[in-house]
């Protein structure tokens, strides 16, 4: 990237993309470029993937937005001043709320926003807009693991131990996780583990880059991970591998689980999943006889309408073997987005307030309202999960205006064509981004905001480690930070004219009454000031940041939450002595396999599943614009087994059509013997004809609201 503006300098920071948050140095060079160099950090140990290496390429990209865009009467997005753009938004929000009630405005956030921005966005929704409708795209990332972890352990932290423990565990079981492609530097820890004689077992319907390195690859039918876990626990019980002392002393609810898994005979599960009994037995023994073992799940296991129960099945297995809290052992979830962990701790979620507090808990409401300087009765109640929210937009009872920060649901939402039509039906759509995403293309107003290397802040990685993101430079002229945008909007909404609760408010909405004071002081633009407030708001909560300061983060390799005391220790490892549940014990949950929400049939005879490729990230808004990444992964594709391709008369490279009951995608076929012949796969990074989420199912997990991204029924034919 070519540098303009400030003199050459360098900062130690972290990659803008995934939850590994690799350490890197960002440096302006004498010849006017900005370069990235990896730096030693415990998660990446000096490594970066190609996305990290090319992260600076977007800083001065020609597609960079540097002026607000406002849709004119002819339907075109045209450059406008900030005053015009913000006035248009404020007028639109006020009109919608006065006509339809406060809940007629919704906010949609992102798992890539810093902790400060996630916190400010939740506060803005509840204090400035007083709407209950806020949720974020992290709902589609790890919400199933979050819910399962919370109900078992009383806390949701992706990894309750440092990532370095992977390198020292004897048996590592990865379920629906492909870090060799999604987080390549993580594999350095796995390489260590293997070098020490450790065993790696991977459960995945595809022979992925990670599965290729495994001692044992279990290749189940998509959607059968839960049954596989119950069979593993069945075998562990039969073979006497259960840690009975641990179960008796540190858990509750095991009897119901024991009765349930007794039904999961390995031979039955072999018929259901396709995994041979011998492999199930080898896996159970590798876990149950090891001195240390770690079980990790990721999106493959979690993005199902039974995602919470699937994760609970693996948590049950970990608890029965006595793993959580034991050295170099336990259960964990590989969170995906850069701040997927922090993003869910500070109030972006429909049901949560900062500190990972429940929004319907009176004590939590009182604490947070006190920090925000409002009456607890003024705080709205819980909203609805992300997909439900998007699917209600523009409907008679749904919101009529939406503010989107750091997300691109036109590409990333399930059943995306339907979401797109909902967005088109809004009275007002506002998108804050630094590039014109597919969602921004539909907006009435687009606000150009700062990107990663242009602002300070904190991120919380997949280990629950709070990190410092450091600015290398100021935002370019015409660009504002998200915090400044929220402050500007809050100031415009700050009037004494009360907005009625109105017909769209619903039973959970806030009481009618005067609008709260939303002075600029209430929405500070300095991230350091926001973080100080966030610490107070989180104090005493599950995710307690009260003892975390920017100085403390900088004096070490980050700070692990909970950290309630500035002078006390942080918490790299959880559960050594107790679990943060009312009884101090972890809780088993008996769970049963159930079929996919949409079984295959004569018309749609194949299973469809989605995932990522190494060179692209999420909806691709950023990585599709980086030359090196575009060359490495230029377009979408459909992966299918050669036997299936032969039956369909498809050759490698032929364009194929994948159709479900909801829509279709078209992309070149990529033939590979690494996938099951009854399953096809497509990556979800591309819009347009290759949009994988045109096909996916919007069936939701009843607990987490996670859509069933990972399995639906399709037919495939040559296009
Ligand atoms: Fe960035 Fe993730 Fe790649 Fe590390 S693994 S360089 S954090 S995208």
From TrEMBL:
Q: Which UniProt keywords apply?
A: 4Fe-4S, Iron, Iron-sulfur, Metal-binding
Keyword Mitochondrion part of the UniProt annotation: no
**Residues in domain 4Fe-4S Mo/W bis-MGD-type?**
8-63
Does the record's keyword annotation contain Cell membrane? no
Record's superkingdom? Bacteria
Q: Where is this region: Disordered?
A: 494-523
Q: Which InterPro entries match?
A: Asp_de-COase-like_dom_sf (IPR009010), MoPterin_dinucl-bd_dom (IPR006657), Mopterin_OxRdtase (IPR006656), Mopterin_OxRdtase_4Fe-4S_dom (IPR006963), Prok_molybdopt-oxidoreductase (IPR050123)
**Compositionally skewed regions (Low complexity) per UniProt:** 508-520
User: PANTHER family under this entry?
Assistant: NADH-QUINONE OXIDOREDUCTASE SUBUNIT G, RESPIRATORY NITRATE REDUCTASE
Q: What is this protein called?
A: Molybdopterin oxidoreductase family protein
């Amino acid at each position: 990237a070519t540098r303009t503006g400030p003199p050459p300098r360098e900062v130690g920071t972290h990659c803008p993309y995934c939850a590994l948050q690799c350490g890197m140095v960002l440096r302006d060079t004498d010849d006017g470029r900005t370069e990235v160099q990896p730096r030693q950090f415990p998660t990446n140990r000096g490594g970066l993937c190609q996305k990290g290496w090319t992260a600076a390429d977007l800083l001065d990209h020609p597609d960079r937005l540097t002026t607000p865009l406002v849709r004119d009467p002819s339907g075109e997005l045209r450059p406008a001043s900030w005053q015009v753009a913000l006035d248009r938004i404020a007028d639109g929000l006020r009109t919608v709320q006065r006509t339809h009630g406060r809940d007629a405005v919704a906010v949609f956030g992102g798992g890539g926003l810093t902790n400060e921005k996630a916190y400010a966005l939740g506060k803005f929704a509840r204090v400035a807009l007083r709407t209950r409708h806020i949720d974020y795209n992290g709902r589609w990332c790890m919400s199933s693991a979050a819910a399962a972890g919370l109900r078992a352990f009383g806390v949701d932290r992706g990894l309750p131990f440092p990532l370095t423990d992977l390198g020292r565990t004897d048996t590592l079981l990865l379920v629906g996780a492909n870090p060799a492609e999604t987080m390549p530097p993580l594999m350095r820890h796995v390489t260590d583990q293997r070098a020490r004689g450790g065993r790696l077992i991977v459960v995945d319907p595809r022979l992925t880059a990670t599965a290729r390195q495994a001692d044992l690859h279990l290749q189940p039918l998509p959607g059968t991970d839960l049954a596989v876990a119950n069979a593993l626990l069945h075998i562990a019980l039969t073979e006497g591998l259960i840690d009975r002392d641990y179960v008796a002393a540190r858990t509750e609810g095991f009897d119901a689980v024991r009765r349930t898994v007794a039904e999961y005979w390995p031979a039955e599960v072999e018929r259901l999943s396709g995994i041979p009994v011998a492999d199930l037995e080898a896996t159970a023994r590798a876990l149950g006889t090891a001195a240390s073992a770690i079980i990790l799940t990721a999106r493959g296991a979690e993005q199902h309408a039974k995602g919470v129960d699937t994760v609970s099945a693996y948590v049950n297995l970990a608890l029965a073997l006595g793993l959580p809290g034991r050295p170099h052992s336990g259960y964990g979830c590989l969170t995906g987005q850069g701040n997927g962990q922090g993003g869910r701790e500070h109030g972006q979620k429909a049901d949560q307030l900062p500190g990972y507090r429940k929004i319907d808990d009176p004590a939590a409401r009182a604490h947070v309202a006190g920090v925000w300087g409002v009456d607890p009765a003024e705080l709205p109640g819980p909203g609805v999960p992300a997909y439900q929210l998007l699917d209600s937009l523009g409907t008679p009872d749904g919101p009529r205006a939406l503010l989107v920060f750091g997300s691109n649901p036109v590409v990333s939402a399930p059943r995306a064509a339907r979401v797109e039509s909902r967005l088109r039906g809004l009275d007002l759509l506002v998108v804050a981004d630094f590039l014109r995403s597919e969602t921004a293309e539909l907006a009435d107003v687009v606000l150009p905001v700062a990107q990663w290397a242009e602002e300070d802040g904190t991120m919380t990685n997949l280990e629950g480690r709070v990190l410092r993101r450091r600015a290398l430079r100021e935002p370019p002229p015409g660009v504002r930070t998200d915090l400044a945008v929220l402050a500007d909007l809050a100031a415009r909404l700050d009037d004494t004219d009360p907005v009625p609760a109105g017909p769209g408010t619903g039973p959970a909405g806030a009481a009618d009454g005067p609008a709260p004071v939303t002075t600029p002081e209430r929405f500070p633009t300095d991230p350091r000031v926001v973080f100080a407030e966030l610490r107070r708001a989180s104090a005493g909560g599950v995710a307690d940041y009260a003892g975390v300061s920017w100085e403390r983060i900088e004096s070490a390799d980050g700070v692990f939450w909970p950290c309630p005391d500035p002078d006390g220790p942080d918490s790299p490892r959880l559960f050594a002595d107790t679990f943060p549940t009312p009884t101090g014990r972890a809780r088993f949950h008996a769970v049963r396999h159930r079929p996919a929400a949409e079984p295959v049939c004569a018309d749609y005879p194949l299973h469809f599943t989605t995932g990522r490729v190494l060179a692209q990230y999420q909806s691709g808004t950023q990585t599709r614009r980086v030359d090196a990444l575009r060359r490495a992964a230029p377009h979408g594709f459909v992966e299918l087994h050669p036997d299936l391709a032969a039956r369909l008369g498809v050759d490698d490279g032929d364009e194929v059509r994948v159709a479900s009951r909801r829509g279709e995608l078209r992309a070149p076929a990529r033939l590979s013997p690494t996938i099951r012949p009854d399953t096809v796969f497509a990556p979800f990074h591309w819009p347009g004809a290759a949009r994988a989420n045109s096909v996916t199912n919007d069936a939701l997990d009843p607990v987490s609201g996670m859509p069933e991204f990972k399995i639906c029924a399709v037919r495939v034919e040559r296009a």
